[in-house]
Amino acid sequence: xxxxxxxxxxxxxxxxxAVWLVRAAWPVRAARPLPRxxxxxxxxxxxxxLLPGLLLLTVLxxxxxxxxxxxxxxxxxxxxxxxxxxxxxxxxxxxxTAAACVQWLLGVPLPAGLAVLVxxxxxxxxxxxxxxxVAAAVVEAGAALACLRWTTGGxxxxxxxxxxxxxxxxxxxxxNARTTRVCLAALEERAxxxxxxxxxxxxxxAAEERTRITREMHDIVTHNLSVMxxxxxxxxxxxxxxxxxxxxxxxxxxxxxxxxxxxxRRSLGVLRAGEPDAERHPLPGIAQLEALxxxxxxxxxxxxxxxxxxxxxxxxxxxxxxxxxxQEALTNTLKHTPAGTRAEVRIRCTAGTVTxxxxxxxxxxxxxxxxxxxxxxxxxxxxxxxxxxxxxxxxKLEAGPLPGGGWGVRTRxxxxxxxxxxxx
Length: 424
Fold this sequence. Notes:
This protein is α+β, with helices and mostly antiparallel strands and 424 residues long.
């Protein structure tokens, strides 16, 4: 009986010598990971079975012959449930705790009792903070009972402090693993969300750019082709009666075509770096409306332009919008009104707004029923593009017949952003 006491006391401090097994349950990150081709990838079940296998080997430690069958059974009950610890952490913790309770009742100290700490770590790593604290309290109570039963000579404090330290370490490692996993999942979700938002913004920017280029091409091509068609008709009509006028019309057609090419290169210059025409020719603005009126007069549409207020301080983009609005309105007048029609353009510039009025004296043909209301006579995108340009500055475009005859287009652009509040 006296010889067995030192051996039992030595076995009572087995948890202190088994700290390396707790460390084996914690995944250690290598400083320099191996290349993907050289990493050893094991099936999850096989990887989870490595630690229980090590615990099963501890049953081979020397012990009394009568204790060996009981030790084998208890070691198996403590170690084997750990194979499924990641799939059912709470159930495995309950099974291991129950086996440890039976071990305490039978009075058989085993190194495999470390399975309780591994189960505690798994619960803390896969459960909430409350579950981790409850599991830690259960294991701490078991550690106190184990020290009371298996320590001799009043040596209770040192084993209890060692076991308490391991309980705290296992709980802290598990909580840290869970926190790290949650943070990584949140970062991955945020990265995926940011990537999705970036792609969405890119798609919206591409769609907006396509819309802008479509409007520019529509205004440039429609206007210049309409002028060239009108000039060509005039040249054909005057080629026999007035060769000089026919020659002047043909020269005007050539100039209009060159101007159309220049405008197209300038509008598409943003798509190609180093486009010379985009830098050499400034964007058209309010100052170029007189030249536009002269071009339309040569095409057979007498046009008068009146500009009230100073426009030199207006942004270039706002002036381009005004120019395109007037150009599209006059192009529609040239296309849809008979000979003898006159047009008038009135631009009023103030500190924060620009008012655009384009009127003509010619009647419009009946609008087809298939054309949406408010889009002007005949199919096309002219009025729709004008509405989009005006809406970019908070304006609302009005287009329709005038009470005294003719057609009018009116809008007001808000340069200071006040149009949003006004339109709301």
